[in-house]
Amino acid sequence: MESLAGADFAPQTTYLNTASSGLIPARSVAAMKAALDDAAAGGRFIDQAFEAVEEARAAYARLVGVPARQVAAGASVAVYAGMIAASLPPGAEVLAAEGDFSSLVNPFAVRRDLKLRTVPLEEIAEAVRPGTALVAVSAAQSADGRIADLDALRAAARAHGARTLVDYSQAVGWLPVSAAEADYTVCVGFKWLLCPRGVAFLTVPEDLGGLTPVFAGWVAGEKPWDSCYGPVAELAHSARRFDESPSLYSYVAARHSLALIEELGTEAIAAHDRALADRFRAGVTELGHQAIAAPGSAIVSVPGLGEAAPRLAEADVHVSARAGNLRASFHLYNTAAEVDRLLEALAG
Hints:
Radius of gyration: 21 Å
Structural class: alpha/beta
Oligomer: single chain
Order of helices and strands: EHHEHEHEHEHEEEHHEHEEEH
Largest sheet: 7 strands, mixed
Shape: globular
Strand order of the largest sheet: 2-8-7-6-5-3-4
């Protein structure tokens, strides 16, 4: 795994911040540059770019274990969360975890006629109750890497007739998941999936989940090129009806990034990432600090060290400060030597 650092990746710093933004593989950068050059020369990159959207859709579908027809391709978690929020009737209760990422939660908060209720992540399954319409939660928390008990949540939601919306943005790419076990899932591509910004995915059930494609444009048509003018006569019969007009250059790169994740395999990536995270947890404990408990996570958050992030950046060691804590995140291009460099910088 670590040999990739010299193959598809060539970081010039100690980069331990994938939870903010992943490094883009060389193969993806090359493809994106070629598409830009082709467009600048007046070439016909458009056809190949739309093929890339479909390849990325199919690759993501394989990674999360659903058919490609259940995957929509877009650019933003907030847009998809907003569409799901728009589908709820007035007065519906939405249950979320305290401190979850705003792109997932805020679309429900701005609808003043919904009842948004938040509880600690560890209590979210037992907090589902009669009248709860939707539970929205991140599979892994952005702030500290805690992993939701999705099995318990799914069982509780089914017992009370609630739907589930799971944000995979901090999960897919290192944490094995199954989108078939949730009603809706969303995920950005620019973190653990190593894509440029402008790539995001939504999954829906086979019956399309009762959603109205309120932002549907021509790409949402069953025959997109016949849907350019006036109301779309026939929406796509699949989740493609929820596509946003794609950021084509980003998707040209995305198909190569997703192919790399598939080549390596999520299970192998998970083992690598978790081993590095465990190494950091052990090391930071030896330094006299206590990481927030997030067993099995590739994200490690340490209270009281958030202010160290700028000092570490000056030493070319890149982590982030989130919710007042130092947050380090470890992915397939990172090495044990980089973990030790971070620990040495903290000790110094």
